[in-house]
C-alpha cells in the first residue's frame, strides 16, 4: 500500500492524502486474478458505510489495478494494540459496536467478509475504526437467490472459526462473527485466545471452549463483556450470537448512547436493505 496525494478539481489548493493499493495481475497468482480479484472489485464499488473503508476510485493501467481509498492515520488495530497495550473496556465497546455495524451492513447486502482480523481494521485520526481488505469477500447467494455455503479456507488461522477448520462447507456470515469475537478478545487482552501453532490442538481448544482472560484483566472486566465474548466464541454455530444480538447486547447498552444509530449509520443500513431488495427482484424476474 502506497500513499497518494489528491487535489480535488473543485478545490485544487486543498491536498488530501489517500492510500493506494496496487495489484499487478501480471505477477499475482492465477487463481487470485480469476476468482478473488473480480469479486473484490465488484464489492468495493458498492460499499458506502461509516465503519467500512471508503474507496475513492479504482483505475486500471495495463496489468495493474490502482485502488485509492481513505488513508487511516493511525494504522491498523494490531499495530495500535502492540504499541499501546490492551484497550480499556469503554473504548473496546465503541470499536466493537462500529465493527458489528459495518459487518451487519455487509451481511445485509449478502456479502461475507471472510478475513476479519485486527490487521484488517483501520483507525482514523479521530480513532474510529473502518473495516478493510475485501480480498476474500464474496456474495453468499447465487444468481438464483439461493444461499451458498463456503468451502474455501480463507483468512488467518488465529481468527478462523472451528467449522472452517473442519474443512466442510460452512456459513461464512456465522464464521465472520467468530472472528469478531477473536478481535474483541484481543482488544481486551492483548493476546490471542488460542494457541494456533498446531491446527489439531487449536480445534480442540476451540470446541472445548479452552480460553480464558489473563487474570489481571479478568479482575477488572465487567461480567457483561465476559458473557459477550463467550457468546461470540461459541463453537456451536446454532448458538453463536447474531449481529443484532451483539449490537443490542447488555454490554453495548452500558453506554446508552451507543444503542442509537447515527444518521449516517441508519442511512447506510437503509441503503443495504434496498440493495438486497434489488438483488431479490432480479432473481424473481429471472425465475417467475
Automatic annotation (TrEMBL):
<dbReference type="GO" id="GO:0035556">
    <property type="term" value="P:intracellular signal transduction"/>
</dbReference>
<dbReference type="InterPro" id="IPR008271">
    <property type="entry name" value="Ser/Thr_kinase_AS"/>
</dbReference>
<dbReference type="GO" id="GO:0050321">
    <property type="term" value="F:tau-protein kinase activity"/>
</dbReference>
<dbReference type="GO" id="GO:0005737">
    <property type="term" value="C:cytoplasm"/>
</dbReference>
<dbReference type="GO" id="GO:0005524">
    <property type="term" value="F:ATP binding"/>
</dbReference>
<dbReference type="InterPro" id="IPR011009">
    <property type="entry name" value="Kinase-like_dom_sf"/>
</dbReference>
<protein>
    <recommendedName>
        <fullName>Protein kinase domain-containing protein</fullName>
    </recommendedName>
</protein>
<dbReference type="Pfam" id="PF00069">
    <property type="entry name" value="Pkinase"/>
</dbReference>
<keyword id="KW-0547">Nucleotide-binding</keyword>
<keyword id="KW-0723">Serine/threonine-protein kinase</keyword>
<feature type="domain" description="Protein kinase">
    <location>
        <begin position="1"/>
        <end position="252"/>
    </location>
</feature>
<keyword id="KW-0808">Transferase</keyword>
<keyword id="KW-0067">ATP-binding</keyword>
<keyword id="KW-0418">Kinase</keyword>
<dbReference type="InterPro" id="IPR000719">
    <property type="entry name" value="Prot_kinase_dom"/>
</dbReference>
<dbReference type="GO" id="GO:0000226">
    <property type="term" value="P:microtubule cytoskeleton organization"/>
</dbReference>
Amino acid at each position: 500500500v502506497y500513499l497518494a496525494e489528491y487535489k480535488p478539481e473543485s478545490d485544487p489548493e486543498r491536498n488530501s492524502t489517500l492510500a493506494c493499493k496496487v495489484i499487478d495481475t501480471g505477477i499475482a497468482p492465477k487463481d487470485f486474478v480469476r476468482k478473488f480479484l473480480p469479486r473484490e472489485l465488484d464489492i468495493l464499488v458498492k460499499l458506502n458505510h461509516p465503519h467500512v473503508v471508503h474507496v475513492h476510485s479504482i483505475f486500471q493501467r495495463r496489468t495493474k489495478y490502482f485502488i485509492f481509498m481513505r488513508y487511516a492515520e493511525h494504522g491498523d488495530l494490531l499495530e495500535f494494540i502492540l504499541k499501546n497495550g490492551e484497550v480499556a473496556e469503554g473504548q473496546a465497546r465503541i470499536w466493537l459496536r462500529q465493527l458489528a455495524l459495518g459487518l451487519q451492513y455487509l451481511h445485509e447486502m449478502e456479502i461475507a467478509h471472510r478475513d476479519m482480523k485486527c490487521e484488517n481494521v483501520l483507525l482514523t485520526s479521530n480513532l474510529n475504526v473502518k473495516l478493510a481488505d475485501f480480498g476474500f469477500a464474496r456474495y453468499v447467494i447465487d444468481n438464483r437467490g439461493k444461499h451458498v455455503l463456503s468451502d474455501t479456507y480463507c483468512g488467518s488461522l488465529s481468527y478462523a472459526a472451528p467449522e472452517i477448520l473442519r474443512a466442510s462447507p460452512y456459513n461464512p456470515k456465522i464464521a465472520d462473527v467468530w472472528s469478531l469475537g477473536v478481535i474483541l478478545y484481543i482488544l481486551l487482552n492483548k493476546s490471542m485466545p488460542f494457541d494456533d501453532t498446531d491446527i489439531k490442538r487449536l480445534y480442540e481448544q476451540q470446541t472445548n471452549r479452552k480460553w480464558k482472560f489473563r487474570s489481571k484483566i479478568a479482575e477488572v472486566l465487567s461480567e457483561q463483556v465476559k458473557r459477550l465474548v463467550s457468546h461470540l466464541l461459541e463453537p456451536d454455530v446454532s448458538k453463536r450470537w447474531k449481529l443484532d444480538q451483539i449490537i443490542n447486547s447488555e454490554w453495548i447498552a452500558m453506554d446508552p448512547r451507543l444503542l442509537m444509530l447515527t444518521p449516517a449509520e441508519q442511512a447506510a443500513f437503509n441503503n443495504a436493505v434496498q440493495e438486497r431488495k434489488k438483488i431479490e427482484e432480479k432473481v424473481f424476474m429471472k425465475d417467475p
